[in-house]
Design the sequence.
């Protein structure tokens, strides 16, 4: 049978996210509790978390989380890392043995910074250099897969139900100001850890519920800009689109939302002239980045997150607020379980982004 | 009649029990097939003149007529078919090049018919176009590589000129001269009502049709007939015709008999003189020359109109397209080997060029591999026969399609493939006034609008079934396609999987 990455596997899912706007750090226990409520939206074939603000002591270094199939792959990958980066710290990622999670690969973490000489030679900026190295490892080194590569953030994922994945990685021992979670319901049994979500590149992480009908149009377009879709998952391609639009085209998340969940032409035609011109421009200019089909996504980034539904809202997603904390989830129950007393709760309309930045952040 | 060894391919079968001798068939046939015999009071006919255009069949009030394949046969021979023998006899008697009209009818694979579309089940909802918006609007033109902001941080509109279409279909080039005034009027009016474009072809633009400028592509071909500054500025896009799918590598020839009156004036050549378009543009012997023409036309139009470069689908199409994309062209039009024509040497029409499906797939891939797919839009034609072909073409990577044969069929063409005779009984490919007036543009344009309205509905239904509600998400979405009965090489070139995979 073909594994994830060798074939395209549709899947349904649950997503959840918590962010504290003042940057107050909280334990990972809450997000596990939230995603566990939606147990039935996953089928045990993939779960994971992204956590922001968890590595303050290494906040200037890229945290590379890597799965290895073998020690040979590890050796080869470490040689590559040493050649391109200054490795400040490396260790196994702490896990606990539980019966629900089996067949784990070798899971390692490296805090790195590009070697100044290598970086200068490449004529790239630091983030592009790092992203290129991640692609190199993931496409060229057999058995090695970098699944997290941002600063002061990390992705933790595995094959299993999400709550078990959280326990496996001891997520409750991490403290961060933002967490997102994903429980997966793929329609196949690839059993490959790299295929679980969140999907991340640099500090962008993505959890996604849905199956996008524009997949191959999006994939073929983004691959033209130097990305390689090795997993053939929707989340991967959406993450690359966001990286491309935000990091490379320097678009704001509000603008990104009007590209990937663009307003219908009939809506654009009713806009005031200035707004109309911008929206028409974005749709024409970035037509290949429009995403159709059902999705709800939570994008995590350096200093905030964005939650977004497809333009027809074909997937459920609710947002709750209590004080400085914002909760986002596929189901209201998954918010109520961790915060029963909300100041407000609402379901954003299709294509209407919910952007939450750290206070003082402006993206 | 001199012996020419030829037995008619078709016979006119008349049911004399039904025939009321109204002589409509006789009046309608410009080929003079039918004749009234005064002595017997009966109709007779000369099958050898029949081109099988169905004009008489359609207009016979008692349905007394039909055209049937002649039962006459040569001694069976797999190698020497009846058609081959007939063509040889014809050449032996005339010493001439065989001529044909319309597209290649021969038995080559039609890849569109070996590609199937996807639909959503369970994991992804299909979308009902009757309930939800379903967008088919497309823009054609070059895209810049990045955004630019002004000092206030506002995005600056840095898009080069684009054309906007309500659906991904345009009427491809057919010159005034090769087709009639009424056919042109039908196309122009339909394009206006549909929010799409039609194309002047190489015959210039008749004074009466300048008012349809917002829906017009003006063509510049190797003969440069009818080209002047006002003409270039009158449409919304300019097309440089480098080649045509029906006759790659050769030019065109509109006989002097068709260069009459308005046509002579529109083409800016004397009445009765043959309009000969050379095989190459004599100012374009290589890609760098093309670049000069592209920019000459842009200079002439103040960089306000996208330039289309149209080529025939030939073996090296992807590399040629890549060169064109780097030549300043905004749009590449590729014409497949099934594309139609008013007249082409039969051997060229039937043996030169490649299928549009393969040319499109190869070109789209090549431009993406080179990272320049955004530099150009791709329009394909030759031959798009239905809304399903359009959906498949877009999913293979086209931005838009060109239709011409389909449009002529809507106007009444019965594909008798005798356009080159100039005696089109349907008033399309003719300049004989009595024949031209048979095509009523009030009806003709409406039929074109009907056709494309129907196709638009069908495109929306197919998109909705795939869970796609905007045409841009279908473009190049090859996972929505599967091949049936194709070999590995064909699948590889098309960039699609086999059904079941």
Sequence:
């Amino acid at each position: 049978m073909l594994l994830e990455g060798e074939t395209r596997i549709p899947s349904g899912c649950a997503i959840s996210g918590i962010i504290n706007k003042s940057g107050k750090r909280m334990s990972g226990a809450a997000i596990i509790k939230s995603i566990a409520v939606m147990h039935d939206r996953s089928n045990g074939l993939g779960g994971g978390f992204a956590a922001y603000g968890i590595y303050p002591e290494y906040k200037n270094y890229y945290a590379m989380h890597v799965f290895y199939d073998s020690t040979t792959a590890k050796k080869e990958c470490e040689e590559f890392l040493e050649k391109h980066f200054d490795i400040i710290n490396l260790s196994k990622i702490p896990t606990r043995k539980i019966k629900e999670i089996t067949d784990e690969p070798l899971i390692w973490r490296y805090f790195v910074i590009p070697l100044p000489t290598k970086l200068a030679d490449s004529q790239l900026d630091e983030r592009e250099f790092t992203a290129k190295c991640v692609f190199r490892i993931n496409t060229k080194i057999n058995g090695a897969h970098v699944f997290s590569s941002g600063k002061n953030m990390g992705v933790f994922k595995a094959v299993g139900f999400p709550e078990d994945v959280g326990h496996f990685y001891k997520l409750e021992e991490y403290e961060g100001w933002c967490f997102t979670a994903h429980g997966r319901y793929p329609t196949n049994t690839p059993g490959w850890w790299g295929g679980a979500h969140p999907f991340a590149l640099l500090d962008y992480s993505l959890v996604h519920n849905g199956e996008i009908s524009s997949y191959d149009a999006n994939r073929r377009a983004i691959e033209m800009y130097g990305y390689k879709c090795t997993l053939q998952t929707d989340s991967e391609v959406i993450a690359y689109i966001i990286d491309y639009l935000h990091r490379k085209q320097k678009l704001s998340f509000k603008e990104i939302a009007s590209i990937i969940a663009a307003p219908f032409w009939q809506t654009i035609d009713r806009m005031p002239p200035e707004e109309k011109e911008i929206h028409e421009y974005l749709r024409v200019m970035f037509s290949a980045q429009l995403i159709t089909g059902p999705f709800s996504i939570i994008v995590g980034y350096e200093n905030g997150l964005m939650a977004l539904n497809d333009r027809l809202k074909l997937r459920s997603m609710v947002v709750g607020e209590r004080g400085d904390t914002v909760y986002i989830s596929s189901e209201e129950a998954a918010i109520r379980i961790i915060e029963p007393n909300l100041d407000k709760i609402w379901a954003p309309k299709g294509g209407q982004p919910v952007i939450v930045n750290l206070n003082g952040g402006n993206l | 009649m001199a012996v020419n060894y030829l037995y008619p391919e078709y016979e006119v079968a008349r049911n004399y029990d039904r025939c009321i001798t109204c002589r409509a068939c006789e009046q309608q046939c410009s080929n003079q097939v039918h004749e009234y015999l005064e002595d017997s009071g009966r109709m007779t006919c000369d099958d050898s003149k029949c081109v099988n255009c169905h004009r008489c069949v359609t207009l016979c009030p008692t349905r007394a007529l039909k055209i049937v394949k002649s039962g006459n046969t040569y001694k069976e021979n797999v190698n020497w078919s009846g058609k081959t023998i007939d063509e040889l006899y014809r050449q032996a008697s005339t010493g001439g090049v065989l001529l044909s009209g319309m597209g290649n009818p021969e038995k080559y694979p039609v890849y569109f018919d070996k590609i199937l579309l996807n639909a959503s089940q369970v994991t992804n909802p299909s979308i009902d176009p009757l309930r939800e918006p379903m967008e088919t609007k497309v823009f054609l033109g070059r895209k810049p590589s990045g955004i630019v902001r002004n000092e206030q941080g506002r995005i600056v509109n840095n898009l080069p000129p684009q054309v906007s279409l309500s659906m991904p279909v345009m009427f491809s080039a057919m010159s005034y001269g090769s087709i009639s005034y009424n056919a042109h009027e039908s196309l122009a009016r339909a394009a206006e009502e549909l929010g799409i474009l039609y194309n002047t072809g190489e015959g210039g633009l008749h004074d009466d049709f300048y008012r349809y400028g917002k829906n017009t592509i003006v063509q510049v071909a190797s003969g440069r007939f009818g080209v002047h500054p006002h003409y270039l500025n009158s449409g919304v896009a300019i097309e440089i015709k480098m080649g045509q799918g029906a006759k790659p590598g050769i030019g065109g020839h509109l006989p002097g008999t068709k260069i009459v009156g308005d046509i002579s004036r529109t083409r800016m050549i004397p009445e009765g003189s043959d309009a000969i378009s050379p095989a190459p543009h004599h100012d374009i012997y290589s890609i760098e020359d093309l670049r000069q023409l592209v920019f000459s036309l842009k200079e002439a139009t103040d960089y306000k109109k996208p330039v289309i470069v149209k080529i025939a689908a030939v073996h090296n199409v992807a590399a040629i397209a890549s060169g064109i994309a780097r030549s300043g062209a905004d749009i590449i039009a590729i014409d497949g080997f099934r594309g139609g024509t008013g007249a082409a040497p039969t051997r060229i029409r039937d043996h030169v060029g490649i299928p549009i499906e393969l040319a499109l797939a190869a070109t789209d891939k090549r431009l993406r591999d080179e990272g320049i797919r955004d530099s150009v839009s791709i329009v394909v034609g030759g031959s798009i026969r239905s809304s399903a072909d359009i959906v498949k073409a877009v999913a293979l990577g086209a931005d838009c399609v060109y239709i011409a044969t389909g449009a002529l069929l809507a106007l009444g063409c019965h594909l008798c493939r005798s356009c080159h005779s100039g005696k089109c009984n349907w008033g399309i490919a003719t300049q004989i006034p009595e024949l031209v007036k048979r095509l009523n543009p009030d009806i003709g344009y409406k039929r074109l609008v009907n056709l494309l309205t129907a196709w638009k509905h069908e495109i929306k239904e197919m998109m909705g079934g795939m869970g796609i509600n905007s045409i841009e998400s279908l473009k190049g979405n090859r996972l929505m396609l599967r091949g049936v009965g194709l070999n590995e090489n064909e699948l590889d070139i098309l960039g699609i999987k086999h059904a079941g995979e």
Remarks:
- Residues 11-54+152-357 of chain A form a domain with the Glutamine Phosphoribosylpyrophosphate, subunit 1, domain 1 fold (CATH 3.60.20.10).
